[in-house]
Design brief:
The mean pLDDT is about 95. The chain has one domain. The two termini are about 25 Å apart. The chain is mostly helical. The chain is about 70% helix and about 0% strand.
């Protein structure tokens, strides 16, 4: 009888590859829109974002997510691609909830065609993608195949850093999502209830990614996440520089936010460097 250890690595299913490719294209579109047309969301995006730095934050997050999902799509095996899936699934589910809670803020009845189209596409995407991704994830898990042993375990100190970073994102993510009215007490710039929950959804998704990297405990398996992680931090720095005037630098939280983003960059680059020492199977 063939043992589990003798089985070849579990392949990334065609369905999962397709949903990752489709999702990567969709988030790239949103990321480019919010990054290049940051101050024109009233006509180009699904809802109007008054704060430019909020739009830039969301754009940076979408662009980093594009890289994560696209690199996952290119993987051949499940164990090198799965790092992208739980965080994407959680983010899309939370964003659907945010959309339903604030549906009146979306451009569904806008007289501007581009804005109305963006709103209806947004609604369709966030209804279809989480359902399809969940179904495909269940199918993927049930496929035959083994998970190769960890070949490049993460140093204990780095695992600790990732856990701390994950918790630091998860806690405010929960607060911003559930208690958006409290955002002004600790967030570096002004948020509305909608944008508070939108940013909260991102923090929860990225926080799950950080904790997931710790659980995988392998530089090879985390390689695509490290690249996306570093890019996220770099793009957030760019957003801060672009709209530095919107940040309340008198708050202690603003300096903490800046230092935390720098730590994201450092962690991602270090992990990526370590992952390059061995070839991914």
């Amino acid at each position: 009888m063939t043992t589990l250890q003798a089985q070849p690595p579990k392949k990334l299913s065609k369905g999962m590859r397709l949903i990752l490719l489709a999702a990567s294209i969709l988030v790239l579109t949103a990321g480019v829109d919010l990054t290049l047309l940051t101050e024109q969301t009233a006509t180009s995006f699904a809802w109007t974002i008054q704060s430019s730095i909020t739009a830039a934050f969301l754009g940076a997050s979408y662009l980093a997510s594009f890289l994560l999902e696209f690199l996952a799509f290119r993987q051949k095996t499940w164990h090198t691609a799965r790092i992208a899936v739980p965080s994407v699934l959680i983010f899309t589910i939370l964003t659907l909830i945010v959309t339903m809670l604030h549906l009146d803020r979306f451009h569904l009845n806008s007289p501007i065609f581009s804005a109305m189209l963006a709103a209806y596409l947004w609604l369709a995407i966030y209804i279809v993608v989480p359902i399809a991704l969940l179904i495909l994830l269940i199918h993927q898990i049930r496929l035959q195949g083994s998970t190769p042993k960890r070949q490049a375990p993460i140093q204990t100190s780095m695992r600790l850093v990732l856990v701390v970073q994950g918790v630091i994102m998860l806690l405010p993510g929960v607060i911003l999502f559930l208690l958006p009215s409290t955002a002004s007490t600790f967030w570096p710039w002004a948020l509305t209830p909608l944008t508070s929950r939108a940013i909260g959804a991102w923090l929860l998704g990225i926080g799950v990614l950080a904790v997931h990297m710790t659980w995988e405990n392998d530089h090879q398996r985390n390689r695509i996440a490290y690249i996306s992680y570093a890019l996220l931090g770099m793009l957030q720095i760019v957003s801060l520089v672009r709209y530095i005037g919107e940040v309340n630098w008198s708050m202690v939280g603003s300096l903490f936010y800046l230092l935390f983003v720098i730590s994201i960059i450092a962690t991602g680059l270090y992990g990526w460097k370590e992952s390059r020492k061995m070839k991914i199977d």
